[in-house]
C-alpha cells in the first residue's frame, strides 16, 4: 500500500526524541492508518480535527507532520511534563525475570502530588486511556486526548527498552559508541533512532520508502496482528523477551544481568559501561535491524486493531 509522500517528507525532517523517535512513532501511526476500518477512520480523523493539538505546545518533532495521526503520534512525549505522565511511557521489568505479575513493577494510576509525575506505568496508562477512548459517554475532547495517548503508547510498548531494564533506566544509563562516532550515546537512544537512522543513510532510503517496504513485507503476518487478541500485558512480555535475547544479549562485550533492586545509580552505570567500550557496530545492527523492522510493523498493525476495536 502506498503511504502519503508529503507526510514522509515531514517525517524525514524531524529530529529524534523518545520512544521510537519522530520517524519511528510516525511510521507506526501511518502504517496503522492504512488498515483502519471506514468507521474507525472516520471517528479517528473527526476527533483529531475537532480537537487539534494546542498550537502553543512546543513540539520536538519539527515541522509537525501534515497527516493528523502522524502528528498525534508524538504529542505524548511533547506534553508529558505538563501532563505529569512521564512514568506512563515505560514499564521496567528487570532483566532475568521471566514470569511475574506486572503490577509488581507498576503503581496504579493516581493523581499528581506536589507537581510530580502521576503514578502509573505503560500498562496502566495505556489501559486507562484505552478505556476512555472506548467510552461513548465521555466527551469528544476526552476521547481525542485518549486517542493521542493510545497512538503513542502502542508505539512505546513495541520498543523493547520501554519494557525492560538492567538497572540502567531502560538502557539510558548504558553508555556506548554508535558506529564509532566519538560522541557518547546510550543503548536506549540507539534503539530509539540511532540504528534506524544509520540504516536509512546506509541504504540511501527515506522513511517513506522504509515504511512502504515494511507494510509490503509484513502484509501476510500483518493480517494476524490486525485480527489478533488485544493483550497489552502479553505484548509487553514480548518486548521484554526481545530485549533479553537481542537488545542486551547481542552486545559485545556482554553485560551481566544486574540485580533487580536499585544499584549504585545511573552515573556509576555510565562509568562502568564506558570502561567496557561497547560499540553498536555493523555486526550488532545486522542482528537488531530485522527486529526493529518487525516491531515497527507489528506496532502499526496492532494499533489499527486497537483503534478498530475502540470504534
Helix content: 55-70%
Average pLDDT metric? 91
* CATH architectural arrangement: Orthogonal Bundle
Order of helices and strands: HHHHHEHHEEEHHHHHEH
Sketch the major β-sheet: 3 strands, mixed
Number of strands: 5
Low-confidence stretches: 1-17
The separation of the N and C termini measures: 23 Å
CATH topology: P1 Nuclease
Helix/sheet category: mainly alpha
Quick one: overall form? globular
User: How many individual helices?
Assistant: 13
Question: What's the number of structural domains?
Answer: 1
Q: Round the Cα radius of gyration to an integer and report it.
A: 19 Å
**By CATH's scheme, which homologous superfamily applies?**
P1 Nuclease
Describe the structure in your own words.
- The chain has 13 helices and five strands.
- By secondary structure, the chain is mainly alpha-helical.
- The protein has one domain (5-310): P1 Nuclease, CATH 1.10.575.10.
- The chain has a three-stranded mixed β-sheet. Strands 1-2 form a two-stranded parallel ribbon.
- The two termini are 23 Å apart.
Compact summary:
With about 300 residues, the protein is mainly α.
SSE inventory with pairings:
Blueprint: H1 5-13, H2 21-33, H3 38-50, H4 68-72, H5 75-83, E1 93-94, H6 122-134, H7 140-157, E2 164-165, E3 175-178, E4 185-186, H8 187-202, H9 207-217, H10 219-226, H11 232-248, H12 266-276, E5 279-280, H13 282-310
Amino acid at each position: 500500500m502506498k503511504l502519503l509522500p508529503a507526510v514522509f517528507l515531514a517525517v524525514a525532517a524531524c529530529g529524534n526524541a523518545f520512544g521510537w523517535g519522530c520517524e519511528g512513532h510516525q511510521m507506526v501511526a501511518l502504517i496503522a492508518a492504512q488498515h483502519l476500518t471506514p468507521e474507525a477512520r472516520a471517528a479517528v480523523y473527526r476527533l483529531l480535527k475537532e480537537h487539534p493539538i494546542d498550537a502553543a505546545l512546543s513540539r520536538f518533532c519539527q515541522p509537525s507532520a501534515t497527516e493528523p495521526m502522524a502528528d498525534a503520534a508524538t504529542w505524548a512525549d511533547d506534553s508529558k511534563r505538563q501532563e505529569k505522565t512521564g512514568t506512563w511511557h515505560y514499564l521496567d521489568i528487570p532483566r532475568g525475570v521471566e514470569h511475574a505479575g506486572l503490577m509488581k513493577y507498576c503503581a496504579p494510576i493516581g493523581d499528581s502530588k506536589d507537581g510530580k509525575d502521576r503514578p502509573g506505568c505503560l500498562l496502566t496508562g495505556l489501559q486507562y486511556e484505552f478505556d476512555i477512548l472506548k467510552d461513548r459517554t465521555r466527551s469528544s475532547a476526552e476521547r481525542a486526548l485518549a486517542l493521542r495517548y493510545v497512538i503513542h503508547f502502542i508505539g512505546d510498548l513495541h520498543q523493547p527498552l520501554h519494557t525492560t531494564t538492567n538497572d540502567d533506566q531502560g538502557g539510558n544509563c548504558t553508555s556506548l559508541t554508535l558506529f564509532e562516532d566519538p560522541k557518547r550515546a546510550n543503548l536506549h537512544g540507539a534503539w530509539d533512532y540511532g540504528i534506524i537512522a544509520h540504516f536509512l543513510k546506509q541504504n540511501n532510503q527515506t522513511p517513506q520508502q522504509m515504511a512502504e517496504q515494511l507494510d509490503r513485507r509484513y502484509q501476510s503476518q500483518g493480517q494476524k496482528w490486525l485480527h489478533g487478541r488485544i493483550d497489552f500485558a502479553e505484548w509487553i512480555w514480548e518486548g521484554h523477551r526481545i530485549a533479553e535475547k537481542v537488545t542486551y544479549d547481542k552486545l559485545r562485550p556482554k553485560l551481566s544481568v544486574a540485580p533487580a533492586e536499585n544499584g549504585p545509580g545511573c552515573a556509576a552505570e555510565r562509568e562502568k559501561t564506558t570502561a567496557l567500550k561497547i560499540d553498536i557496530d555493523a555486526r550488532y545492527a545486522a542482528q537488531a535491524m530485522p527486529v526493529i523492522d518487525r516491531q515497527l510493523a507489528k506496532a502499526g498493525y496492532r494499533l489499527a486493531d486497537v483503534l478498530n476495536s475502540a470504534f
